[in-house]
Specification:
It is a single chain. The protein is of the alpha/beta class and 661 residues long. It has three domains: 162 residues, Substrate Binding Domain Of Dnak, Chain:A, Domain 2 (Up-down Bundle), CATH 1.20.1270; 145 residues, 3-Layer(aba) Sandwich (Rossmann fold), CATH 3.40.50.2030; 227 residues, Rossmann fold, CATH 3.40.50.2030. Helix content is 48%, strand content 9%. It contains 27 helices and 15 strands. Strands 12-11-10-13-14-15 form a six-stranded parallel β-sheet, with helices on both faces. It has a five-stranded parallel β-sheet with strand order 5-4-6-7-8. Helix 5 packs antiparallel against helix 7 and helix 9 runs antiparallel to helix 10. The radius of gyration is 24 Å and the shape is globular.
Length: 661
Amino acid sequence: MEKKVHSANPSSEKIVLWSEEQKIETCFDRAEKMKPCPIGEEGACCKVCHMGPCRLVGKNAEEEARGVCGAQLSTVAARNFLRMIAAGTSAHSDHARGMAYTLLAVANGETHEFKITDVRKLYRVAGYLNIEFEGRPVNDVARDIATKLIEDFGRQMGGEINYATRAPKKTLERWRKWGIVPRSIDREVVEAMHRTNIGVDHDPDHLLLQGLRTALADGWGGCMISTDITDILFGTPTPIKAEASFGIFKEDEVNLVVHGHEPLMAEIMVDVINEPEIVAYAKSKGAKGVNLGGMCCTANEVLMRHGIPTAGGFTNQELGIMTGLIDALTVDVQCIMPAIAELSKKFHTKIITTSEKAKMQGAMHIQFDEHRAREIAREIVKLAIDNFPNRTTKGSHITEKFPVIGGFSHEYIEYMQGGRWRGSFRPLNDAIMAGRIRGVVGLAGCDNPRVPSTGLHTFLATELIRNDVLIVSTGCGSAACGTSGYLTPEMALENAGPGLREVCEAIGIPPILHLGACVDNSRILTIASAMAAEGGLSDEIGGMPAVGIAPEWMSEKAIAIGCYFAASGVPVIFGGNSPVGASQEVTRIMTDVWFERFKGAFHFEPDPEKMLDLALKYIDTAREALKLKKYEPGKFATEKVLMDMAARRELEKSAKPHLGF
């Protein structure tokens, strides 16, 4: 009998096997025991009222099955899917709301724990919002930005979210034609929940259009707002070296891990752990100092800006505790397994919840408050230090770790192709037109214990770059690549196709660009918009040789992300079985109809080989439609030389500087 592989990452697999020997249950064990409900998995179960749950199954369910109220299968599947979008949008956008109010508090002088770090980004955002910034106090500009962005959450009387105009004109025209430009974030979520209540909206196409509008409120609203404000407060990322995997934990230091998605407390922690009195306190307890590490997207936030190492993504949180080396693990919101509280009792690790929105049984709670953030951070760090002497040798200690290069923001990608004053996306567009780069794939999404975790990410990453496809990655997709050693420039030399390798060498980048946390998928949207504005490819996001892939998704946030990319014109492929697979009609709308209207589509495909083939087919079809020369592996379309930075500056001496640069 072939031995089951739980995780494709060797270090993770070692800990899982150790846990089995110790009879300690993990998410991998629970995934094996708890099989998905086959009816609910395909979207054929309706439980939005107390006449149900209704199971719409049978040989001719699409035509004949009805719920008690008479709802058809296509209605039920679309309704369930819309609710997933609404939940995912709520998660990202509630995060963004907190960031917006923090910016406002900084601008008003209500908190001195944070400051405006990146004034250039502040001015750039002011330009997007038509806010005057020249000659004005920085805090006054910040106040106007925060106030205007907060309006996007609760606008009631018509209008559109502010950032809709950042999309290419043609993309925005498509949205307006089909009535899916978001009015405000909260309004779209509330309307989605209203429409899916018993007895309201029954037309699957109409329901799914509201799904796209709600998702756009996430991508061009919540996610983009959060990314911009985080950059303003903590700095726009630039390339930085870090490390990944369980080897980041140190036996002679206090190991404190920040886990979740909100960056506020983690940013303060970066400073606090290096305070002389904190270091002295750690030494008084027998430790050499405090080692800060991360999990999931909080890890990505501090990795991108400070080089703080990451222990990985979603499925690594239990495994990290089982190293026996984590003295305290703080959590805020999203993707936190409640199992870690019970698991921590078998070790010495302290689990600390910090958000008023998220508590769990068996964990300590220390409420984070941005008005006294440093005081709270010191309390948590000292708690971790006090726990250091309680550490035992129990656990599976892993020493392996990999170098990671992260920090590729929109602004830096623009800068590296033309410098501060003449930043440009022209070299990237030229490389795609010349055939050196076949296309671009956004590789994102969670890692999932129902498959060999992180294995689909690394398989696709290897095959895509071998086929000269540039990858931009976020969230746990970045963590999967990082903990496998895939986020270095050397990766291009060893594995990338010759065209992509040449581009990577010329610019000095890895073939997989780590763009940040899951909210930072908005960076992909702005990069695609800039490529469209640069010219030479499509004049809208739709039609570009670009695809989004989330091979191991599990969260409703991922569904919202996939939908805002599809609505923006990017074909999207998700792994696993389809949550609307029971309805052929809903599947047709999300693939054929969405592609016709928006040039984007949403597919679900469990086979990684088929995912790869579909992605390359979309890319090659887009190249053909754009009348680019046919991609030929190992053979460039032209002998055109990719210009270096000096050549670009010489060519563009007459170009006007970009706003804020």
